[in-house]
Design brief:
The structure holds three protein chains of three kinds. Chain A is an alpha+beta fold. Helices cover 30% and strands 22% of the residues of chain A. The chains are: A alpha+beta, B alpha/beta, C alpha+beta.
Chain lengths: 350, 386, 86
């Protein structure tokens, strides 16, 4: 940071006890100080240092991919991550689901008056670490402040830009009958980790959110099987919702085997206790892949060779079905339809 | 998971299925009613119908307390939060049920009323302790399984000397539900259905024991098998019922003997008797007014009765004209017999509580069973080519 | 009214409470509705309360009954018991 800039501010930000106030969003000195002393320090890169309102990107050869997400999760900090790492991983994953390499992120903050700077610093540092680990640059951003009571502490919007090989054709409408359906690992971890903190539902567990950037796993997968038909990350609404989306968009049916779906015993137990169906619980570090039957073993092998795919499994197949139903053969031996999620999964007593 | 996984074993399920196929008399229909939300859920979730012969029909009776809760009761609970500024603590199950004006507790919460989802009455007591300047009301719904916890909670509130806590009691009684199915002239007029036997509820029976069902077996000559809540329990109980029917017996048998005894949980019963007494009449959604079918808080605990603390009054609210929840709850009709099912009435826009509670017959059928309604390229399942 | 789960009593606590556990998930529940529960017992838990002890001997009897039934059945002999595809 050059000396001329640092002298502009009479006092440095009190990152331990300070709080966001309306000045920070006004676009004046306070905003500039917030950017320089907090965001720039964490996200530091050449593009950002120019302090333009935009960034010029160098795009490698291929098709450009862009994705955007809003993040409003509460609580902000949870076992395994926080809203910061979640937002970075989430958008990287959206881009990666095209089979693309994520390159750049932008980030918009909406902060509530009174939000502690110490929390903001934790979140920003978490974002920076996640971006660095993924080798993705945060190149542009924006900050606004809303009055106390009008925002849940912090909302984050991230937009990601990446590039995908011209030869790849990975889309939600590409699934075909006889294809195999694979999942990269255990389901329900993130949602249960969050519920464990919700008021009145506390229970002691070791369940940790699975939030992770999946682009490296995806790179391995497309190298092994470039003709992957579909990739989807089952976030809100869980595995069931993502499978229904793919079935609907591809105009096919999907048949899965309950016994083949990887799930941790503690997650299963927590769902038992709360009366929740793990199929509908959010995941933040998992993906679904659909590929031709002949290539399913190769794809599975590639996934299992990667740390984020160690528990990958083939869980079912695609069939012709004009109703685009997702159906599951239960571990018990009967069958049931796995429908779209209706509303928020609420725990039940009955 | 111990005591859970063993009772979900798919291999054992196959054997039980074979035994049921072997003992069910071909061409004969067996109609068994279950009235336990857990059973409705298990049957749907595990696809148990796929393992039973086509002649065995499992009918969903009034086993879901949310489904039999009249709209008027929810209105009262809503009023407590919305109009009287109390913190309403409620189980999640009831939050999505549309009450009058098609509004649910969830929507009233969104509009600003302080409605909080809790897992246990303990949580409501905690809310009361943490908010000494606010009134806290616990919406107590449920059959006999949930009543002892409410009684324990009220006793705890009394012992702690809480002055801002009360309970809006909507607890109902299972035997009354069964009797009303079998007995009431109303029900006969509207269309009762022949039932060959009952699958007794799992957890209600833990509390009340197997003894209360002996009356039904004798008086109405219907076999009862009290079933555990896991899918193998349900299948075993179906087998036991088929045997009773074939042999012309009308006994109470207990499949769930790892948790249910003849006399039940005396300690829990005693606690309930201390805090509650029979209320003279209660309107059940779909079944009409059933005498001595519900509980109210005794006078000595009156300060914990929300109906005395708040100027609230119950007003009966009729269901939508096309809604067949009543007939469905009595087992007289099936979801597909309702002209609203799947069109105006779907899980995201429920017209009646059979659709809003995931245990409701309509929701369970829509979510899990709809596949069987749609014509597919596969041949229908029969005993020969399953 | 049936969402109730068998859980193991891990630790008795004062005020008639206990820590119960299922596959690594723990919860504190009330023992106000039961008597003579010891650590290592299994209880059926519903809305934060133990409703009853689960009797392991009776459970074993039930499971034994299931196996007895499977021992008497020859697969395929009875219609409807052929292997099923998805």
């Amino acid at each position: 940071m050059d000396k001329a800039r640092t002298r502009r501010h009479a006092r440095t930000l009190d990152l331990r006890r300070g709080r966001i106030d309306m000045n920070h969003g006004s676009g004046g000195r306070a905003t500039a100080q917030l950017i320089e002393e907090l965001f720039l320090v964490a996200f530091d890169n050449e593009r950002l240092r120019r302090m333009d309102d935009h960034a010029e990107l160098a795009m490698p050869v291929g098709k450009m991919v862009v994705a955007t997400d809003g993040h409003v999760i509460s609580p902000l900090f949870f076992p395994g991550g926080d809203i910061g790492s979640l937002s970075v991983h989430g958008t990287i994953n959206d881009v990666a689901m095209a089979g693309a390499v994520p390159l750049y992120l932008t980030v918009g903050f909406i902060l509530e008056e009174g939000f502690p700077l110490s929390d903001l610093k934790k979140i920003v540092d978490s974002m920076a670490a996640a971006a660095r680990a993924a080798r993705v640059q945060i190149v542009a951003g924006d900050t606004k402040v809303v009055e106390r009571g009008k925002g849940d502490g912090i909302f984050i919007t991230t937009t990601g830009v990446g590039v995908v090989d011209e030869a790849l054709n990975i889309h939600a409408d590409q699934a075909q009958p006889t294809d195999c359906v694979l999942v990269s690992g255990t389901i329900g971890d993130h949602g249960v980790a969050i519920m464990s903190l919700r008021e009145h539902l506390t229970f002691g567990t070791d369940i940790v959110s699975d939030t992770a950037a999946l682009h490296d796993l995806v790179a391995h997968m497309v190298r092994a099987v470039p003709q992957i038909h579909c990739l989807r990350d089952p976030t809100r609404g869980g595995l069931a919702t993502a499978l229904n989306e793919l079935a609907d968009l591809s105009g096919v049916g999907i048949r899965i085997q309950e016994a083949a779906i990887p799930i941790r015993p503690e997650v299963k137990a927590a769902c038992e206790l709360l009366g929740l169906d793990p199929l509908y619980i959010a995941n933040e570090g998992k993906l679904i892949a659909i590929c031709a039957r002949a290539q399913a073993q190769d794809l599975l092998t590639a996934m299992r060779a990667h740390p984020l795919g160690a528990q990958a499994a083939i869980i079912g197949e695609v069939v012709a079905d004009p109703h685009a139903f997702v159906e599951m053969e239960t571990a018990f031996g009967g069958r049931r339809v796995v429908d779209w999620l209706m509303g928020d999964p609420l725990p039940r007593i009955c | 998971m111990k005591f859970i996984d063993e009772f979900r074993d798919g291999e054992v399920a196959k054997s039980l299925s074979q035994a049921i196929f072997a003992e069910a008399v071909p061409g004969r229909e067996y109609r068994f009613m279950e009235f336990c939300g857990g059973h409705t859920h298990a049957i749907a979730r595990y696809g148990i119908m796929d393992l039973l012969p086509p002649g065995v029909r499992l009918i969903h009776g009034p086993g879901c307390p949310v489904c039999v809760l009249p709209i008027g009761q929810i209105d009262v609970a809503m009023a407590v939060a919305r109009d009287h500024g109390a913190i309403l603590c409620t189980y999640a199950d009831v939050m999505r049920v549309p009450a009058s004006r098609r509004e649910s507790l969830l929507q009233v919460k969104a509009a600003g009323a302080d409605v909080r989802m809790v897992y246990s009455i303990h949580d409501a007591l905690t809310v009361a302790r943490e908010n000494p300047n606010r009134e806290v009301v616990f919406f107590a719904i449920g059959f006999e399984t949930t009543t002892p916890p409410t009684a324990a909670g009220i006793r705890a509130a009394a012992e702690a000397g809480l002055t801002n806590f009360s309970v809006f009691c909507s607890h109902v009684l299972t035997p009354s539900a069964i009797q009303s199915i079998l007995e009431s002239p109303d029900v006969r007029a509207l269309g009762a259905v022949d039932i060959d036997g009952f699958i007794g509820p799992s957890h209600v029976s833990i509390v009340i024991g197997s003894r209360p069902y002996e009356f039904f077996a004798e008086e109405y000559e219907k076999p009862v098998v009290i079933a555990g809540f896991e899918p193998l329990d349900v299948m075993q109980s179906v087998l036991m019922l088929i045997r009773q029917v074939n042999e012309g017996r009308c006994e109470v048998e207990n499949e769930f003997h790892r948790a249910v005894t003849r006399l039940g949980n005396a300690k829990a019963q005693g606690l309930v008797a201390e805090v509650f007494e029979l209320a003279r009449a209660f309107e059940w959604r779909g079944l009409g007014i059933v005498p001595y079918s519900s509980l109210r808080i005794r006078e000595r605990y009156r300060q914990f009765d929300a109906q005395y603390r708040f100027p609230i009054r119950y007003h009966a609210v009729a269901d939508h004209k096309g809604c067949e929840c009543g007939a469905i709850l009595r087992g007289a009709k099936q979801p597909k017999d309702c002209r609203l099912f799947g069109t105006a009435c779907v899980p995201e826009n429920p017209m009646g509580s059979c659709m809003v509670s995931s245990e409701g017959a309509c929701a369970a059928h829509y979510t899990y069973g709809r596949y069987r309604m749609a014509p597919t390229t596969q041949a229908p399942r029969t005993a020969v080519n399953s | 009214m049936c969402l109730a789960v068998p859980m193991k009593v891990e630790q008795l606590m004062p005020d008639d409470l206990a820590v119960v556990e299922l596959d690594g998930v723990r919860k504190v529940v009330s023992l106000a509705l039961v008597d003579d529960v010891k650590e290592g017992d299994y209880v059926i838990v519903h809305v934060g309360f133990a409703l009853t002890r689960l009797d392991p001997e009776e459970a074993a009897k039930t499971l034994a009954l299931f196996s007895e039934i499977s021992a008497t059945i020859t697969p395929g002999i009875i219609p409807g018991t052929e292997a099923k595809g998805v």
